[in-house]
Amino acid sequence: MSKPRPRRAARSSGGGDVHELGGARVGPGERADVNVLVSQRTSGAPVYVPAHVWRGAAPGPTLLVTGTLHGDEINGAGIVRRIIDEPRFELLAGTLVLVPVINVLGFERNSRYMPDRRDLNRAFPGSASGSLTARYAHALFHEFLLNSDCCIDLHSAASLRTNYPNVRVDLTNSEASALAVSFGCELVIDGEGPDGSFRKSACAAGVPTMILEAGEVSKIEPSVEETGARGVRNALIHLKMTEGEPVKPPYQALIHKTVWVRASNGGVLRFHAGPGDVVDQGQPLATNTDLLGRPLNVIESPAAGVLLGMTTLPAVAPGDPVAHLAIPDGGVEWIRKALKKARTKDGHAHHEIVREHLSTNVVVDEWEEGPE
Ligand SMILES: [Zn+2]
Hints:
Blueprint: E1 19-21, E2 24-26, E3 31-40, E4 46-55, E5 58-67, H1 75-85, E6 93-99, H2 104-107, H3 132-143, E7 150-155, E8 161-169, H4 174-183, E9 187-190, H5 198-204, E10 209-215, H6 222-238, E11 253-255, E12 257-262, E13 267-271, E14 278-279, E15 284-289, E16 295-300, E17 305-311, E18 315-316, E19 321-327, H7 333-346, H8 350-359
Parallel strand pairs: 5-6, 5-7, 7-10, 8-9, 9-11
Antiparallel strand pairs: 1-2, 3-4, 4-6, 8-10, 8-17, 12-19, 13-15, 13-18, 14-17, 15-16, 17-19
Helix pairs in contact: 1-6, 4-6
The structure holds zinc ion (ZN).
């Protein structure tokens, strides 16, 4: 059952009207670069968020795509840049608003946080009279979000971790879920997001929103760019803003349960599995060794699942996260079968490339049982 949600009239667009953003007026069939004033620096200099507004000729919804809400998660900036540079679709209807870097103040310092040390993604919907971060959030919410009908917000894993590309959405929100499913990642993680997050506040305001979580901070990773660009095109097909065949994933699992696997000793890890791998219960994920390389213990998977995220820092203290495991409802055998089928059909498929690329940061050794 879907929860009752506030309904907003579509703000947009297409047809004979104009889309207004940051003082610019963009007509049907037009494209424009726009700078939106959202804040001020300590020096008094204005802070603008650059955006690209792209209109189809026909009426339709407004899709907002935002990157780098956490200022060091620049994979989102890479995805948006690729969509602007090399679009693989013709925008036929509605309005696509592309924002590579929405947290300009965090981005300039390669920091997750705002200059007042707050997390922008816990400050929505913001306040016009609050802290720097609250005011910045308020400006974004009013300038960008409330002028949109739905939103895709692009994130990466937090510092020193990597995420196999996955989307996160409140599965009780039917429109947001349909958007997230259409994006075409293998893993769709259920959850409404933390209080104050952009997506939770956006959904509460009647703008269905999903997030992508992919790759690492401080990097623009080609396979993540590719995943994001495909996903946005898939979403545009779903929203009937363009035409074409969506790129389907080899499997798609709705995930209601995830678990962090943690180190029990201080030491240095040797990994036996990487992001995106399908693992069985009890399968060795990493061997924790002392500084001389002597094995301390083998960290095993607590359940059958798919590795959603991994640490990229192999030096761990007790309790540090090693891996984030997605646990599908129906086990993993159907996933293995689907992957095998996709491998025979597509040769070297995109999901294999993503797994390999992300694993370059996580050196995976075969697990060999040592002496007792
Ligand atoms: Zn983030």
